[in-house]
Amino acid sequence: MGDAFCSDCKRQTEVVFDHSAGDTVCSECGLVLESHSIDETSEWRTFANESGDNDPVRVGGPTNPLLADGGLSTVIAKPNGGSGEFLSSSLGRWQNRGSNPDRGLILAFKTIATMSDRLGLVATIKDRANEIYKRVEDQKSSRGRNQDALLAACLYIACRQEDKPRTVKEICSVANGATKKEIGRAKEYIVKQLGLETGQSVEMGTIHAGDFMRRFCSNLGMNNQAVKAAQEAVQKSEEFDIRRSPISIAAAVIYIITQLSEEKKPSLKDISGATGVAEGTIRNSYKDLHPHVLKIIPSWFAKEEDLKNLCSP
Amino acid sequence: MAARRNNPSGIVPTTQNIVSTVDLDCVLDLNHIALHSRNSEYFPKRFSAVIMRIKDPKTTALIFASGKMVCTGAKTEAQSKLAARKFARIIQKLGFPAKFRDFRIQNIVASCDVQFTIRLEKFACTSHGAFSTYEPELFPGLIYRMKQPKLVLLIFVSGNVVIAGAKKRDDFYTAFDNIYPVLAEFKK
């Protein structure tokens, strides 16, 4: 029900909207003003006693600009369990034999999606990794390379470019079969390829211990004060000449902070599990940090006597 | 040797290893060589060359069936040539008509210490970042690929610098002269 201008009556009249036919009709003279109007209400209705098994969605995923045809193709799924219908499985085989330029890409995107799911990464990073992979694939020279390592390295670079770096060990843990060395080599290769393609525009800052602090601390369940103290400590530790990998320094700082706090102290094994740093390395990094501990730990967090009580390495 | 480059710091890189190749210009029977010399090893399944070592100069040579030879481990260019000649002499004594063709030095590795600690993260962030690779997770040193002369420098926090890929002594002297003022900027 509303008011609209009717061209027959030449004035504003009351207009009736007929939902069943999709018509807008003038109530005075019966002229149909608009027909075939598109219904914008929900696509389906859900009832309380209906089983939630069937997914009523009838549309596919969003268009993917990286794929050749925008992801418009349909794939015949393989029936899970016993393949009762011989017809459907052979149809699936026939489709796979057809020339599909994107098949490798789609498989790679799927692997990247699985890996980023395992790490809990946002869609932005996953899309960036897909983009990087496509750019590298466009240059045909990556045929014989270890695919797993290449995909893992794409994900690693994507995380770095979004300023949310993940340690190579973390990426290792979700990549099936790729070792730290292989991922490192693949990463160098990708950076070189991207540099060749776009003339040295690959922007990747060096990693700092502070980038990983939040994540490691929340994995160990430290409280907010401890997390803030740890972040400050790591900032200050960069001024001193400590020749250790930033991850090892981060782990050692977490160890010191947790030893100083009154709550339950995670053991070296727990810290080792959360950061990926070996226990021996944390002990050695602790030895390197210990001489500077007074200047690194913020004074509002721990007093001098506590620091003196810290076990000497 | 050529006159010492006048570097304000007075530091001169010292060679650590020289790799050179020479063509003996005759086909060799590697089995015969391996059997008749006491300082060689030959495992064709593993690698298709005889690995021979001499004590003075302390060097190792890879001798291939085509007659080509790679000589590694010498500390100076003269020693490398001398060692290559000694290896060729051994092959001659074993009965092959070995000659000494195209002796070429392929790679010189040199190292030095600039005596101060270096801030590598700052280095990688500046305009030299296009040539540097610094991944503390993967390797503790910064890998600097210099374009002119074309060689690779490994720069460490302690101040040690390793220069590799030079074909002539002058190359790595120039490279060190180029990199020293840049490093001095990033002194810790």
TrEMBL record, chain A:
<keyword id="KW-0479">Metal-binding</keyword>
<dbReference type="InterPro" id="IPR013137">
    <property type="entry name" value="Znf_TFIIB"/>
</dbReference>
<keyword id="KW-0805">Transcription regulation</keyword>
<feature type="domain" description="TFIIB-type">
    <location>
        <begin position="2"/>
        <end position="34"/>
    </location>
</feature>
<dbReference type="GO" id="GO:0005634">
    <property type="term" value="C:nucleus"/>
</dbReference>
<dbReference type="Pfam" id="PF08271">
    <property type="entry name" value="Zn_Ribbon_TF"/>
</dbReference>
<dbReference type="GO" id="GO:0008270">
    <property type="term" value="F:zinc ion binding"/>
</dbReference>
<keyword id="KW-0804">Transcription</keyword>
<dbReference type="Pfam" id="PF00382">
    <property type="entry name" value="TFIIB"/>
</dbReference>
<protein>
    <recommendedName>
        <fullName>TFIIB-type domain-containing protein</fullName>
    </recommendedName>
</protein>
<keyword id="KW-0539">Nucleus</keyword>
<dbReference type="InterPro" id="IPR023486">
    <property type="entry name" value="TFIIB_CS"/>
</dbReference>
<dbReference type="GO" id="GO:0097550">
    <property type="term" value="C:transcription preinitiation complex"/>
</dbReference>
<dbReference type="InterPro" id="IPR000812">
    <property type="entry name" value="TFIIB"/>
</dbReference>
<comment type="similarity">
    <text>Belongs to the TFIIB family.</text>
</comment>
<dbReference type="InterPro" id="IPR013763">
    <property type="entry name" value="Cyclin-like_dom"/>
</dbReference>
<keyword id="KW-0863">Zinc-finger</keyword>
<dbReference type="InterPro" id="IPR013150">
    <property type="entry name" value="TFIIB_cyclin"/>
</dbReference>
<keyword id="KW-0862">Zinc</keyword>
<keyword id="KW-0677">Repeat</keyword>
<dbReference type="GO" id="GO:0070897">
    <property type="term" value="P:transcription preinitiation complex assembly"/>
</dbReference>
<dbReference type="GO" id="GO:0017025">
    <property type="term" value="F:TBP-class protein binding"/>
</dbReference>
TrEMBL record, chain B:
<dbReference type="InterPro" id="IPR000814">
    <property type="entry name" value="TBP"/>
</dbReference>
<dbReference type="InterPro" id="IPR033710">
    <property type="entry name" value="TBP_eukaryotic"/>
</dbReference>
<dbReference type="Pfam" id="PF00352">
    <property type="entry name" value="TBP"/>
</dbReference>
<keyword id="KW-0238">DNA-binding</keyword>
<comment type="similarity">
    <text>Belongs to the TBP family.</text>
</comment>
<keyword id="KW-0539">Nucleus</keyword>
<dbReference type="InterPro" id="IPR012295">
    <property type="entry name" value="TBP_dom_sf"/>
</dbReference>
<keyword id="KW-0804">Transcription</keyword>
<protein>
    <recommendedName>
        <fullName>TATA-box-binding protein</fullName>
    </recommendedName>
</protein>
